[in-house]
Write a sequence for this structure.
């Protein structure tokens, strides 16, 4: 599980910024953690404050290590910093083993790279020269400046059967990224989690069980043709089948394209949520509040926290109702605030030591944790 991230000169995070996902002494919602690690974090704040950027270090790590495409490093540097080097550090706890991975880049090339497992060095790299130590073997390599040496080692050696590193990469490959606004889902192991592909493989049963368990007023069907009460929907021969919503009390199935934006978002992201919960992986969601009712957001967050064991949910939302000790712990919530040419800064709610009984939403809206926009209102 991801324990900590430290970034510097990463987009709007100009100064060194630490994202800590280790639990504090709060006793609320113990099921929101696994051992000492929290099951994720929520980022809130003003528009253009850096909330999406706060979750991008996770996606960048996954893209750099696991995507078979060139990643433009230039877009991740801080445009208003005089220091051209961007540094990234990640700490993972994998079944009690400490994995620390650090890399830095300048322009479009990597500068340094280091990987340790239980404080023992596995990879060291300085620009084009790299050293690999696994077991008693030490090997030196020349490395392309545009690729991470760790990626090269993984694809060429699969870590020679090293169980800790193999397990770590298995965890990374099961991660899922969702842009809820565009309904775009990215996976890293070839799994297709588009809702139609999911239904074609799994059927509609798991989705309808979820809807039934949590008292939704509808179920879904996946059909090529539906005809009822004189209304007929039929897909063309080469178009496959369509999702239909069957609402309680309404006798005519409703095609998904005629449903609300919220229901379309829900049906699009549920397979990815099920997958992350089942596989105990990282689930990164941007624009989580896209079309979803506040109560539905609360349900989905609670579902992940209760049903997932090692699943970690890192997400961005504008819904302040999620700022509640009944949903998330104070150490799971961060505000993000942009401070001019100093860049973005974060505040972890637990740093302000709110009591467990205090209203976190009210405290946030009153400015205790920062991250609140102050818009002027014109006089009438």
């Amino acid at each position: 599980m991801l324990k900590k991230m430290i970034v510097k000169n990463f987009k709007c995070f100009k100064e060194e910024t630490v994202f800590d996902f280790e639990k504090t002494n709060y006793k609320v919602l113990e099921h929101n953690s696994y051992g000492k690690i929290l099951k994720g974090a929520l980022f809130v704040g003003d528009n253009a404050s850096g909330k999406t950027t706060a979750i991008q270090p996770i996606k960048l790590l996954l893209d750099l290590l696991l995507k078979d495409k060139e990643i433009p490093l230039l877009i991740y540097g801080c445009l208003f910093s005089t220091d051209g080097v961007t540094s990234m550090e990640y700490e993972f706890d994998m079944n009690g083993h400490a994995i620390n991975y650090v890399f830095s880049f300048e322009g479009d090339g990597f500068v340094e790279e280091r990987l340790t497992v239980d404080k023992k060095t596995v990879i060291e790299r300085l620009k084009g020269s790299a050293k690999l130590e696994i077991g008693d073997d030490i090997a030196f390599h020349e490395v392309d400046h545009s690729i991470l040496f760790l990626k090269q080692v993984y694809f060429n050696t699969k870590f020679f059967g090293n169980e800790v590193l193999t397990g770590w990469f298995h965890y990374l490959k099961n991660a899922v990224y969702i842009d809820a606004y565009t309904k775009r889902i990215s996976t890293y192991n070839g799994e297709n989690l588009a809702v139609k592909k999911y239904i074609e493989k799994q059927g509609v049963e798991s989705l309808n069980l979820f809807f039934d368990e949590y008292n939704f007023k509808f179920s879904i069907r996946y059909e090529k043709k539906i005809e009822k009460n004189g209304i007929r929907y039929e897909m063309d021969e080469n178009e496959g089948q369509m999702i239909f919503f069957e609402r309680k009390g309404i006798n005519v199935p409703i095609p998904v394209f005629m449903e609300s934006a919220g229901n379309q978002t829900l049906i699009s992201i549920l397979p990815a949520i099920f997958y992350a919960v089942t596989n105990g992986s990282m689930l990164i969601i941007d624009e989580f509040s896209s079309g979803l009712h506040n109560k539905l957001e609360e349900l989905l967050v609670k579902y992940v926290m209760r049903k997932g064991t090692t699943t970690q949910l890192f997400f961005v939302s504008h819904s302040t109702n999620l700022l509640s000790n009944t949903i998330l712990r104070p150490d799971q919530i961060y505000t993000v605030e942009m401070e001019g040419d100093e860049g973005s800064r974060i505040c972890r709610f637990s740093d302000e030591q709110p009591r467990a009984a205090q209203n976190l939403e009210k405290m946030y809206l009153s400015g205790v944790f920062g991250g609140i926009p102050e818009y002027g209102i014109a006089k009438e």
Q: What stands out?
A: The CA atoms of residues 31 and 306 lie 6 Å apart. The helical segments are 51-66, 149-157, 163-173, 195-202, 205-213, 261-279, 294-307, 360-365. The mean pLDDT is 93.
